Amino acid sequence: MRAWMKAAVACAATLALAACGPSGTASRGPAGTAAGTAAGTVVIAAVREPAQIFPPLVGESVGRDIGDQIWERLAELTPGAAPTDTSAYRPRLAAAWERVDSLTWRFHLRPGARWQDGTPLTAEDVRFSFEAFTDSTVDSQARSVLAGRVHVAVEDSATFLVRFGDASPEQLYDATYHVRIIPRHVWASRPPATWSADTGVALLIGSGSYRPRTWKRGEFVLLEADSTAARRPRIGRVLWRFTADPDAALNLALAGEADLLEQVGPPSQQARFQGDSAFELRPYPSAVYGFLAFRLADPAGRPHPIFAQREVRRALALAIDRPTMARALLGPDTRAPAGPMSAMLWIGSDGIAVLPFDTAAAGRALASAGWRSTGAVRSHGQQPLRFDILVPSTSAVRKQAAIMLQEAWRHAGAEVSVTAVDFPVFEERIRQGKFDSYIGAYLDEPSPRGIADQFTRAGWDRLNYGRYANPVFDSILARAGRAHGVTSARRLYQEAMDTMNADAPALFLYAPSNVAAIRRTLAGVRLNPYSWLADLPDWELTVDGGARLGMRR
User: Fold this and answer.
1) What is the model's pTM?
2) Residue-level pLDDT at 544
3) Is the domain of 380 the same as that of 502?
4) Is there a single domain that holds both residue 455 and residue 541?
């Protein structure tokens, strides 16, 4: 599974917020009162409101960020560790686990685990959760990974088995990463087909550090600390304020109305914080990468008149200086990835073969493929080398990348247009195959097996919108996913990347280093590249943001 990154990243006059305005001095001093008492409010500027925060229905990273404060995984993988490393997992809802045999793991729930409404949390909740995440009606993002191969059997109220249909080296990862445990007593009586329309705050009951208090659509979500949580939070309230685009989120922080911004953006945006002593700009590794994908065929199987030709795609790749472009887009620490992977993904290697920047070779390749120069634009018979790049209008980085590609390809003899559309339209068009090429961005998960969704034949109904298919690549990638041991798996993944890069179904443009804006009143901040707010319950406030924003108590 590969999570689509829908978030690159209004003044509420009712309910919790009494006023919004410029930052002022907090009126109540340190936020931490008695030891272990959660106090104060942190405000997060988020790009776009998620459609859902209930875990089986979540499709956006902002929705996941919110939901992960409410619902728990069984365990968490240490950031940057290989999912095959069974020593790299930390207990969460499960207190312990052990391997039973090559296909089975036994888990033990945290003693005294309860839902936020006081109901005991049992192994039946775990079984119900795995069934929900694999239900075809719910159609969660995890379904493609779990359905038909992972089953839960209850041994007693606190003990259960997770059984697999194959001896994958990532069994512990699949048992703990994809599924957040949800309450059976709340959702079992409700038909799954109604869940997306039946998620009022009263039903959003979890076992995590925070519980939802208010969701005012179009404006904000407010969570409150659960004083009975096993992982007791130190901040009393967390407020996500939704903005239309990254610029609006940045302006919210600069206006003193937000404490946190996940990504400030390129150096030009970072410069806007110069002289602002209220914020720290914190670099941290990014699990994101950006790419341009070519459409090789449409959903009906008709080949694209230009990009169905492998040599054309290779020539266009040769015409792009990806490392220079990556740094120009997002700063000197940005890399041009060697494949569909962020800088965090453990399979990365300098030995992966990529097509070099060579404009002369690009010209020769186009000519040998029959694309002749008869003027400013090459042509092949009656077909001009003319195509479009589709981008979301909300992403300044992707729009700039498209313009840079447009100019480079003009020198190669291609006439390239750039079409920017609203994000929902962008999503709809790529799903329907209504594009020549598009620039996307993905948020990696720790397992590279998600590459299958984007670039194998099996991914045509998932994220492989360009409809690339190479049986050799598919076979090597599958072998890599079954390999035991980091060294042998990395070698096979490298071979798979070499194979795909030679076909050039996409250009892998940038793997940035994130820069977050963090108000200096926050202490103990650790940022997880795969889920930047994962450790939020352990953060502290030295000054109460709620007083600054006029929070009513």
Assistant:
1) 0.79
2) 62
3) yes
4) no
Residue 430 domain flag: yes
For residue 524, the domain's CATH number is 3.40.190.10
- 27 and 98 in a single domain? The answer is no
Name the nearest CA neighbour of 244 among 424, 2, 20. 424
CB atoms within 10 A of CB 357: 18
Cβ partners under 8 Å of residue 65, min gap 6: 46, 240, 531, 532, 533
Q: What spatial distance separates the first Cα and last Cα of the chain, rounded to whole Å?
A: 42
- Within a domain: 67: no
Q: Are residues 44 and 88 in the same domain?
A: no
Asked if residues 14 and 218 have their Cβ atoms less than 8 Å apart, the reply is no
pLDDT at 128: 98
Q: Which residue has the tokens 């494949």?
A: 339
Residue 194, domain member (yes or no): no
Give the Cα separation of 244 and 311 in Å (integer): 40
Of 141, 99, 100, 105, which Cα lies nearest the Cα of 126? Answer: 105
| 281 and 292 belong to one structural domain | no
Q: What does the pLDDT read at residue 9?
A: 31
**Residue 30: CB atoms within 10 Å:** 14
d(CA 71, CA 247): 30
Q: Are residues 358 and 503 in the same domain?
A: yes
Structural domain count, the chain: 3
Q: Residue 272: how many CB atoms within 10 A of its CB?
A: 15
Query: Which of these, 213, 192, 193, lies nearest to 202 by C-alpha position?
Result: 213
Contact 64, 72 (CB under 8 A): no
CATH of the domain at 466: 3.10.105.10
Q: Is residue 325 situated within a structural domain?
A: yes
Give the domain range for residue 254.
Answer: 10-48+214-285+514-548
Model confidence pLDDT, tens digit, residues 451-507 = 999 999 999 988 999 999 999 999 999 999 888 888 888 899 999 999 999 999 999
Cα separation, 206 vs 199, whole angstroms: 13
Q: Which one, of 324, 318, 304, lies nearest residue 437 by Cα?
A: 304
Which CATH number belongs to the domain containing residue 95 in this structure? 3.90.76.10
CB-facing half-sphere around the CA of 424: CA atoms within 13 A: 5
Parallel/antiparallel/unpaired status of strands 210-216 and 220-225 = antiparallel
> Contact at 8 Å (CB) between 467 and 319?
no
Q: Tell whether 336 and 442 lie within a shared domain.
A: yes
Residue 180, amino acid:
R
Kindly report, residue by residue over 381-435, the tens digit of the pLDDT: 999 999 999 999 989 899 999 999 999 999 999 999 999 999 999 999 999 999 9
In 3D, which of 519, 534, 546 has the Cα closest to residue 66? Answer: 534
How far, CA to CA in Å, does 266 sit from each of 20, 329, 514? 28, 7, 9
145 and 279 both lie in a single domain: no
Beta strands in 198-278 (DSSP E): 210-216, 220-225, 235-243, 260-261
Determine the distance from the C-alpha atom of residue 117 to the mean position of all C-alpha atoms in its chain, rounded to a whole number.
Answer: 30
Q: Which parts of the chain sit beneath pLDDT 70?
A: 1-36, 544-553
Is 286 within 8 Å of 511 (Cβ atoms)?
Answer: yes
Task: Please give the pLDDT value at position 485.
Answer: 80
